[in-house]
Specification:
heterotrimer, A alpha/beta, B mainly alpha, C mainly alpha, B: mainly alpha, 10 helices
Chain lengths: 235, 279, 123
């Protein structure tokens, strides 16, 4: 089976500044992977490059074996902040947008997810709290059937209950062969659901390791991640 | 249905969403203006022609139709650029070349739809006026009789003139879309390339001026280039002889200029112009 | 259920299921929850649950019926053995920590019987 993600020798510059250099990353099917790195390490940029919305990079990016941007967009689902919609837009109208433009959007699954998240279909975007909006974004993202899901900091700034709901929805609705990449700048809340961690430091991937292998060395995933940034402080 | 058509449908809906609101405002505003003018007697227009309430309303409505078409055109220009730079719209699995064309085409479609609605509204109001104003009634009947007499004299040349003017208007509408996109994309691409210290809002304005200046100098450097590009505009300003040959030439050149900018925009859009982060 | 993050989670899931079986919450011959149900209930990765169940299948404490899921063994000697192992593991921990406090084995026995007597008189 083709890997959901294969990146080779990726370089990305903006404003004469290197943001990503010589990055290589391969993700296998059926995994939940955390993309870790401090703020500004380039996690969002990497996800935008994979999704084909960040331009003018060098290197190769393959999503489910596809290199063309339009094909990549068709085989991945990225948590988008829904900035394309006016604040007065109702959830139902956003769903219509998804139904028309994404042929893999599954309405039944969305409705299950929406019920699970306790969101009413006639709510407007302006009426949603930060946690509710993030839940909606997750519900929309998971209602598509794709090989790769990219969740960009889905837990930032939301309360513990919403966080738990989102984590449970990840376990419940993940298809067997699809892979989920979750970016975050800290890791403790989600370690139990992760297969692997990928750590970004110095503009590139500096470590990719299975969580159970980390634990087998009697180290917690959090300690493991922090050790990469502590080393820098000591130097 | 192919993604191109589905994307067009969604964009068309987005861009025509506020048309009904716009038309209601136009109707209410023109009614109010007519009402106050008619009863206060503060009328700077010729009383004898506008003796009837509906006739005055129709006249003001037509003036507003032009104004509101302009407003609507500007709104489609804005929406083109909003969609281009928005992550929600750019994440849709469609090729960038198609996305750009869909965007421009749906804006033009929306504009056409708006113009048709304006014409229908004007006609409805015209029919009402026709029924209530006897003077207007006779003027219109005379006018149609006059047109009927001249209809035999309409030859190919006049037809060409008529449709040529319509074609020129259409090409100008597209030209506006293309040139705004070009300035938006090229200035953003330039700022993304320059060091971060320069990526401030006012540098964007400077970048736009620099691009216009460079383009102008580049065109001016070759006398023939200037001749070619300025011709359609000189024609429209009435600086040429204004014959049908000139119209044909102006149309061809305008079409070529449009194609050139369409090509440039497509390249800039698909290779350099990024959607803003949508968080 | 909270897991320690510095011990492989599949081991902790196994421990959890052993306890459920020994305390009778999961009965011999009965079906245990599906992999996904367990994953949601424990908020852990499906693959990790899978790995724990595979090992328990290999040990014989669970057995798989094709297309139906995993069932608890009805082999009473195996269940007894598992229970003994679990008790031994707990005692091991207890004795270790007492020894590290400098308490001898005899003292442990004495203290424990006194402690139990007190506990029972409280009831």
């Amino acid at each position: 089976m083709t890997n959901p993600l294969e990146i080779t020798d990726l370089v990305y510059k903006k404003n004469q500044k290197k943001i990503i250099t010589d990055l290589n990353l391969t993700l296998k099917p059926g995994k939940i992977v955390a993309l870790l790195g401090e703020n500004g390490a380039g996690k969002t940029t990497l996800m935008r490059i994979i999704s084909g919305v960040a331009k003018n990079y060098r290197g190769s990016v393959k999503v489910a074996g596809f290199t063309k941007e339009a094909d990549r967009k068709g085989h991945l689902s990225f948590t988008d902040g829904l900035t394309g919609f006016a604040n007065s837009t109702k959830i139902n109208d956003i769903v219509k947008f998804y139904q028309i433009l994404y042929h893999d959007f599954n309405l039944k699954q969305f409705e299950q997810l929406r019920d699970f998240m306790n969101l009413k279909p006639d709510l407007r975007l302006s009426e949603l709290s930060k946690g509710m909006k993030e839940k909606l974004v997750i519900a929309l993202t998971f209602s598509r059937r794709v090989d790769l899901y990219l969740l960009d900091e889905p837990f930032s700034g939301i309360d513990a209950m919403a966080r738990k709901k989102i984590i449970k929805s990840i376990i419940l609705w993940k298809q067997e062969k699809s892979t989920i990449l979750i970016s975050d700048h800290f890791v403790n809340e989600i370690t139990a659901v992760l297969d692997e961690v990928v750590i970004i430091k110095n503009k590139t991937v500096c470590m990719q390791k299975s969580t159970e292998a980390i634990r087998a060395d009697n180290q917690s995933v959090e300690e493991f991640y922090e050790s990469f940034y502590q080393r820098e402080e000591e130097e | 249905m192919a993604i191109f058509n589905r994307y067009f449908t969604v964009l068309f809906r987005l861009k025509t969403k506020w048309i009904s609101l716009l038309l209601i405002i136009q109707t209410v505003a023109t009614f109010a203006i007519t009402f106050f003018n008619f009863h206060n007697g503060h009328l700077y227009l010729n009383r004898s022609i506008f003796s009837n309430f509906f006739t005055l309303w129709l006249a003001i409505f037509i003036v507003f139709a032009w104004l509101f078409t302009g407003v609507f055109y500007l709104s489609t220009c804005y929406q083109n650029e909003h969609v281009s730079g928005n992550q929600t719209w750019r994440l849709v699995p469609i090729d960038d070349k198609k996305l750009y064309f869909d965007n421009i085409l749906s804006s033009f479609g929306a504009l056409l739809f708006f113009v048709i609605l304006e014409i229908i509204c004007t006609l409805v109001l015209g029919v009402v006026t026709f029924t209530f104003d006897s003077q207007f009634h006779t003027t219109i009947i005379e006018m149609f009789a006059d047109i009927g007499r001249h209809l035999q004299q309409v030859d190919l040349e006049i037809m060409f003139n008529f449709f040529g003017a319509i074609m020129m208007t259409i090409l100008c509408a597209f030209f506006g879309y293309f040139i705004i996109s070009f300035l938006n994309y090229s200035s953003r691409a330039l700022l993304d390339f320059l060091p971060e210290a320069l990526s401030k809002a006012y540098f964007r304005v400077i970048a736009v001026f620099v691009i216009i200046l460079v383009a102008w100098l580049a065109i001016k450097a070759s006398d023939i280039g200037l001749q070619i590009i300025s011709f359609p505009f000189r024609f429209m300003l009435g600086e040429t002889t204004g014959t049908n040959d000139d119209l044909a030439l102006a149309l061809v050149l305008m079409l070529a200029i449009n194609l050139l900018f369409w090509f440039l925009d497509t390249i800039l859009f698909s290779k350099f112009f990024e959607a803003r982060e949508g968080k | 259920m909270e897991f320690k993050d510095n011990i492989p989670i599949y081991l902790q899931i196994k421990q959890y299921l052993y306890r459920q079986i020994i305390t009778g919450k999961l009965k011999p011959g009965k079906k245990i929850p599906s992999v996904r149900e367990l994953a949601v209930q424990l908020t852990v990765n499906v693959n990790t649950v899978q790995r724990a169940l595979q090992q328990m299948n290999f040990e014989g404490i669970l057995y798989t019926k094709r297309g139906e899921g995993n069932f608890v063994t009805e082999d009473t000697t195996l269940l007894e053995k598992t229970k003994r192992e679990l008790i031994n593991a707990e005692l091991d921990k207890f004795v270790h920590s007492m020894n590290s406090l400098g308490v001898s084995d005899e003292q442990i026995l004495k203290s424990l019987s006194e402690y139990l007597k007190e506990e029972h008189s409280d009831d």
